[in-house]
Amino acid sequence: MAHATATVDMMHPPAPAERGLDVYNNKLGMWVFLASEVMFFTALIGSYIILRFGAPGEWAKPGVVLNVPVTAFNTFLLICSSVTMVKAYAAVADGQTHFLRFRPFSGGLKFWMLATIIGGAMFVGVQAYEYTHLVHHGFLPSGAREGSEVAELVASGVVPAATIGLYGSTFYTMTGFHGFHVTCGVISMAYLYVTKALRGKYSRHDYRGVEVIGLYWHFVDLVWIILFTIVYLI
Amino acid sequence: MTTVAATSHVAHAHHDDRSFVRKYIFSTDHKIIGIQFLFVSLFFLLVGGLLAMQMRWQLGFPGKPMPGGGILPDTMAPGGVLLPEYYIQLVTMHGTFMVFFAIMPLLVGVYANFLIPLKIGAHDMAFPRINMASFWSALLAGLIMLAGFFVPDGAPRAGWTSYAPLSARPDLSGASYGQMLWCVSLVFLGLSSILGSLNYITTIINNRAPGMTWFRMPLSVWALFITAILGLLALPVLSGAVIMLLFDQTIGTHFFDPVVGGQALLWQHLFWFFGHPEVYILILPAMGMVSDIIANGSRKPIFGYHSMVFAIVAIAFLGWLVWGHHMFMSGMNPTLGSSFMVSTLIIAVPSAIKTFNWMGTMWRGNLRFHVPMLNAVAFVAMFVIGGLSGIFMAATPVDMFIHDTYFIVAHLHYVLFGGSLFALFGAITYWYPKMFGKLMSERWGKVHFWLTFVLYNLVFFPMHTLGMAGHMRRIYDPTQYEFLKPYQPLNEFISISAFALFAVQAIFALNFILSLKWGKRAPQNPWEDNGLEWSLPAPAPHGNWETVPTVYRGPYEFSSPEVPEDYLPQYRKLPTDREPARAPVAGH
Amino acid sequence: METAHRKHPNYVLIWVYLAILTAIEIGVAFMSHLPKQIIIPALVFFAVWKALLVALYFMHLKFEPRKLLILAIVPLPLAAIFVLAAMSEHVW
What we know:
The structure holds three protein chains of three kinds.
Chain A: H1 4-8, H2 25-53, H3 68-93, E1 100-102, E2 105-107, H4 109-136, E3 139-140, E4 143-144, H5 149-155, H6 161-197, H7 208-233
Antiparallel strand pairs in A: 1-2, 3-4
Chain B: H1 3-7, H2 20-25, H3 30-60, H4 84-120, H5 128-147, H6 170-173, H7 177-206, H8 219-250, H9 264-281, H10 284-298, H11 305-318, H12 334-362, H13 371-394, H14 396-402, H15 406-436, E1 438-439, H16 442-468, H17 488-518, E2 520-521
Antiparallel strand pairs in B: 1-2
Chain C: H1 11-29, H2 36-58, H3 66-73, H4 75-87
Helix pairs in contact in C: 1-2
């Protein structure tokens, strides 16, 4: 066993060890990383709550500036991709690494993982569409663009002028970083799909990558569940 | 059984055949990464020191041309006379470099990386490639920060705490790109720290050698573990804050601008919610390493090992609840302020427990004042002074007078220099043989220690007096105030002592560099210590051990009645020892 | 050793719950005749419920060692302390 560093990264480490947390390294590492991500979103979402609580005036009513129906669909899409992700995990844990079988009908890892990637990519796409739409109508991170539709809403009092700047700042920062995290997830998952899943590197004996990327994916979905509620609905 | 026979049981890993680049540049070996952090951080320590020297010139001799100032451009120091705009850049960057790029990486980047796998009996970190990414991210962050000096309008000017809205508005601060680079740099540094932390935490939880139970871990490892948790949870808050600040600076958001509904105090809450755990990150590893060194130098077990562990945990836990004591004068809710006063006074208790335990360790010990021990004992004494001045600040009514004065500057330098940096001098000397296979010169180490100790106190103790007199922080010219003019001789005295202090560090630098080539070859266990790392040859080979050692006892079995030597390594098996309770399992 | 649970929870059922809860949330959000003091806690309650479903079932926290659950929970009180403390600036 000459090159120990090359062999450390395995589902069951080769070295004898004290009993740890009964959770293999990659999974423990991902949970630890997610704890740090909770703190990152705490800074962003917490600031939003603090700014809104201490705001100099009323916040815009839900649905006036933002498109709730489209985002509701997007939320549903992300939740679906979380389900396909966990189906992918269940499939590989049961040894089902195929794509599709027809008699009986069953999806394997390769199918469900692809579905997740597509779902995630669609979510990002819809968000990108939403952003362009909002910017086009004059809703910017700095508030309302002069002479735009949103500026007219502000002028007419439908959207409070005192808080439109904060509204834009917090909206774009929170949803933007969430979208960034989804994008990183899609890219990572696509990478694992092509280099590992499609090449048959996952099996019921070693599916760590699937489980670990799955945890990240569910976390991103979880953050969105919170964000959707407090950004779009409250 | 002799020492030599005992160590020969622990077989170390074979030689490795990687290329030079994979071995020393893009290395995933935790020891190399630790050494990379060491060289880079010492460089930034030098940068921070040079910035401080310029500050001390201005404070000691305001308005006089600085020797060597001719090389600075006219935007900074025309004719060698420092401009106020440049002075405030020095202030900002001195703090920034010292905190983020010197002390933090020296304590964590170097010693978490180098020591953890060695001291718990692992081949390497849980995620070696992420470890490598952590180093390169930190280096990138440092270079971005340095670049701040070379962009239009120069380095950031809002202090290392970068309060908004000053830091968000170039029209107010005078710094534009520099202030943005500060934010970008810290995003990368945060990433580096978070990646490092997740490695340290996972490795310590899951990769301890058989027999290395939680309460047999050395206190240095405990401290690094708790520090990693602090870093994991605190740095992301800074990242978020700094991103919001960057957006305020660039894309017109309004997080911190009160004119448009933002909250300036929000920045302070965010920054200090990170900032206070950060200062515990800057002291806990030092405390842990000092514990190891003092036990070794006293030839006695650490007094109150369990209470030391609980004190570390208590400090880390309470550290989340005290951040507002940096904000007593900010105009925040007074009731909230009172709660911070209470929590801050409470947090002195676990630190005091540790201090008494160090003293209890030394009491009636068979003291060996080798260079690491000298530095470790100085740590305890200086930390007590720094801690006591901290009690003054904890009391809000007192803080009203001393906030933003040199009393605070004295406090923070007593804990960061008198504390962390002395601990680092000791730690660097202590683990140098394991890193490089050579010994640093004991004689020059002692010369460096005594000169540094005396001069350091001459520099920073008088700052308590200045602060009490009302000498404010970050000020360019103290003589502009009548009430400060009588204290100008003291400022001069401090500056001259500071120049001497800085010059004396050349002894340490030369000792460090020259010993690499010409130092005495190090024996395997020069300090006769008990940790697992001393079972390996010096320098330790790639992969550390062929098979991880088994651990039979705690780390501080000095002067044990069971053996004739005055130390008993953790990995040495005595006839009376049993194998660890759980049979080693290849998996967990 | 990773305990490979043979029986997976019914993920499709959890998905149905999530969809229903989302629909309820949207409904509540647009019932503008209700006071803010009812709407906001209700929405937060539903959001937390959904988040718990994802964390416990999709992320398997329900089936993992207890210590992992504790690790995952640790940041939450910190987040709460920070937000509440900073909010208190505006209370009085």
